Amino acid sequence: MKNILNTWSKLSLVKQIIIGLVIGIILATTIPNVAQPVTILGSLFVGALKGIAPILVLFLVMSAITQHKKGKQTNMKFIVVLYLMGTFLAGLTAVVASFLFPVGLTLANSPEGFVAPGGVSEVLKTLLLNIVDNPVNAIANANYIGILAWAILLGLALRSAPDTTKTLISNLSEAVSKIVKWVIKFAPLGIMGLVFEAISTNGIESLLSYGKLLVVLLGCMAFVAFVINPILVFLAIKQNPYPLVLKCIKESGITAFFTRSSAANIPVNMKLCENLGLNKDSYSISIPLGATINMAGAAVTISVLTLAAVHTLGIQVDFPTALILSVLAAVCACGASGVAGGSLLLIPLACSLFGIPAEVAMQVVGVGFIIGVLQDSFETALNSSTDALFTAAAEFKEWRKEGKKIEISKVV
């Protein structure tokens, strides 16, 4: 047993996760009833990540701002530009793909108990209200816009505090970071439980009737991940972007795929940025911000499903109008985290651009919930891995200017 544990500890976290994933698949396909208790491992892992993430963001951002010295580079402007550009190009990619490969829908009944926002103004209002949310309430509800706002304000207010106070905040930040590392060590067991639950509960059979829609949807996300994002990274670092792209997908995307939560993946991305040797002042702010506004996957979902509804109803749309949709999708996607139900419930906003009635739009949302087991997983994997990717690209851009060699460690 000791030898097995020693061998296990020598494996990289990615290899451990892959082993957990394989075991979960085997258990779900062979003895699903007997192995049912395994699902608790997934619930505990996601619960622990979601529980620690708000506190981690609060103290990391506070610490970064209180310790920040004037003149120190943080790259935040360029990171935000990459976030917004990536989200817009993802929406544009989905629009082009929907024109090239039009998909019709078999409309499903809309899910009960969900209310879509009434317009873009309502989305923006929700975001603004989240900024001024009560700090305790923001932490309890994982409202990262609110947490970021309070962390920044407290950090700025404490910049003139005594060194002892700054040291205390820094020590608390390091303590929370250490707890995160402990939680992440259990990722293989958590992934095993999550993949077991996904396969044993949902299966794949119910998705076959929506095969073409899924091909377009997931194809767009793959194109963004392996073509659009690498181009943006190359323009920043002027060297082969794929080692960095693949590293982010393997070390961040895999976990995000199974947790299906950008918030739960914040600690994983923080750890990845630390391993890449990035500036803590930058990634402690950019990662939680990315979990809120960097929504390439959501922009793809909104655009593809909306244009599928357009094709189903036989509405004639010219490309300029559809281009407006990609802009609207980008704006709505940035607000997705502030609306109950995420990106799917923002589809009626885009549908309203084409005069599609709310009743039909909500049926399209119902289709989204049917394919959600894959759509949401791929969407979260793309969104979350891109947070770390663009944060790294922005810093590597500065390294290149300084003549510092960029060496990305091996993916496997």
Q: Biggest sheet, in brief? A: none
SSE ordering: HHHHHHHHHHHHHHHHHH
Average predicted confidence as pLDDT: 80
Question: How large is the share of residues in beta strands?
Answer: under 5%
Task: State Rg.
Answer: 21 Å
Low-confidence stretches: none
Number of beta strands: 0
Q: How far apart are the termini?
A: 25 Å
Put simply, the count of helices is: 18
Q: Can you tell me the overall shape? A: globular
Helix coverage percent of residues?
over 70%
Structural class: mainly alpha
Notes on the protein architecture:
The protein has 412 residues and is mainly α. Helices cover 73% and strands 0% of the residues. It contains 18 helices and no strands. It has helices at 2-10, 13-30, 39-67, 76-100, 120-131, 135-140, 144-157, 163-184, 187-202, 211-237, 242-259, 266-275, 280-293, 296-312, 319-334, 347-352, 358-370, 372-401. Helix 4 (76-100) packs parallel to helix 13 and helix 13 (280-293) packs antiparallel against helix 18.
Distinctive features:
mainly alpha; 73% helix; single chain; 0% strand
Gist of the model:
The chain is 73% helix and 0% strand. With 412 residues, it is mainly alpha-helical.
Write the SSE topology.
Blueprint: H1 2-10, H2 13-30, H3 39-67, H4 76-100, H5 120-131, H6 135-140, H7 144-157, H8 163-184, H9 187-202, H10 211-237, H11 242-259, H12 266-275, H13 280-293, H14 296-312, H15 319-334, H16 347-352, H17 358-370, H18 372-401
